[in-house]
């Protein structure tokens, strides 16, 4: 490790992929140096997050041992710390920061576009997080994230049915269109934007991956329909990138469990 | 109007403030030249949006008369068109674009911070949209945005109770902390970030404003508690900015109705 490199520090809950996984994938796919306290010391990860998000944590993150003065506090993890001055939160915001620095923002793919690629990729990242992460979560927690699933099972059954039948196909169809159109816009076939891998591809990969785990029957039918071949091919292509493949096969990749993507058979197709 | 100025074009549904209102407020608060097809020609607004988001709209927005080649399609309005080359969607993404160009990104407020203000303001914008817009909407539509309220009234009652009692105070408390801390971080008292108005203040303003309309009793109690004085003062301060005040008093400001913020008394406190 060169002294001139400031490693990125991911601060997220231990034990689940969760929202932190999007940050991990951006770092892993680019072979970037980072620390991951959830893996290196789960107990410290929990206490660090608690100090950063506590209601009575004070007025500034500097009151937390993990805080960095000058940065507004965050409401929830993931957090990304980068050196002595940067501590930011909100998954799409962290991805915006990393994409700009790790070559995942589609820059250079459309000559003369200036910073337009940053906004295009950000738009796709936000939409993928909405439809393939947040709504997948709300399918099992439609009433309150603070209540147990068992206390909102009836409502979850209704919401999951709508998600499988309406929302999920809508989002998959959208990304199918985006991939198809990218080539016509002068980009590289198979990817969402521009000439290669961006943060948006990684978020769609993780969303499809998690939803395949949570709703195997519904996703099996959607895949078999042939209507979303490009999206499923993108999932496979990202999984096959050498650095991503090595990560997915490592112990660093947490198994799905009680996070965003949960396997409740009663919420899946019959 | 100088020929050298390229006006911003907001494309959003007519008749409701909705997500488009965040874009309008950024443009209005800065006295920026823009067109607003929802106001100038509601019929054209609807047909334009339909052509931009249609499932069979083709692979590229260029197949829509409103499209701009080179931009990936969007899933939903608001859209922002800027000149011959830029067409972007996703509310926080449009605000990121505008904040950078209209001086609403907190730039210059912390000397030596480079582009850090952009990420800080984006973080606050995203959190305000999550808690004061999306979750306020889901309080009356917890099962499916495509179903009528009447078909999810029982579930809405449960979700709204959780929103009023848990989520809303959590978000208000967070922004109270952010405002309080900004002064300690060297910023200007009363604002969320840096030396003055940013896009984040405008989103919090609109969220508080809409929630006051939708949940007048719950918000009355929260305001009377004295725990969120800075947040309510920020709402008042933004409303009192001369350009914002003039806008709010104009016909351009759409009344609340059947959009994000809805007044269903059975979802409010007793």
UniProtKB/TrEMBL annotation, chains A, B:
Residues 114-256 form the GST C-terminal domain. InterPro entries: Glutathione-S-Trfase_C-like, Glutathione-S-Trfase_C_sf, Glutathione_S-Trfase_N, GST_C, GST_superfamily, Thioredoxin-like_sf. CDD domains: GST_C_Sigma_like (cd03192). It holds the Pfam family GST_C_3. GO terms for molecular function: glutathione transferase activity. GO terms for biological process: glutathione metabolic process. Residues 7-106 form the GST N-terminal domain. PANTHER family: GLUTATHIONE S-TRANSFERASE. This is Glutathione S-transferase. The lineage of its organism: Eukaryota, Fungi, Dikarya, Ascomycota, Pezizomycotina.
């Amino acid at each position: 490790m060169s002294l001139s490199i400031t490693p990125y520090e991911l601060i997220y809950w231990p034990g689940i992929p969760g929202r932190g996984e999007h940050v991990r994938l951006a770092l892993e796919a680019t072979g970037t140096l980072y620390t991951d306290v959830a893996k290196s010391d789960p107990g410290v990860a929990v206490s660090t997050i608690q100090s950063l998000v506590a209601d009575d944590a004070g007025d500034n993150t500097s009151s937390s041992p993990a805080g960095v003065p000058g940065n507004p506090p965050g409401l929830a993890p993931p957090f990304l710390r980068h050196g002595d001055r940067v501590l930011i939160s909100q998954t799409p915001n962290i991805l915006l920061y990393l994409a700009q620095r790790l070559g995942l923002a589609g820059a250079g793919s459309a000559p003369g576009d200036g910073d337009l690629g940053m906004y295009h990729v950000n738009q796709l990242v936000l939409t993928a997080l909405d439809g393939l992460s947040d709504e997948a979560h709300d399918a099992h927690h439609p009433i309150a994230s603070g209540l147990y699933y068992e206390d909102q099972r009836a409502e979850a059954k209704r919401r999951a049915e709508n998600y499988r039948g309406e929302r999920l196909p809508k989002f998959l169809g959208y990304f199918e269109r985006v991939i198809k159109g990218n080539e016509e816009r002068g980009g590289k076939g198979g990817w969402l934007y521009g000439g290669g891998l961006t943060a948006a591809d990684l978020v769609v990969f993780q969303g499809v991956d998690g939803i395949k785990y949570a709703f195997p029957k519904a996703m099996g039918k959607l895949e078999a329909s042939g209507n979303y071949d490009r999206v499923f091919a993108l999932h496979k292509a990202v999984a096959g990138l050498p650095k991503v493949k090595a990560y997915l096969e490592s112990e660093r990749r947490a198994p799905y469990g009680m996070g965003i993507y949960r396997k409740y058979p009663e919420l899946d197709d019959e």
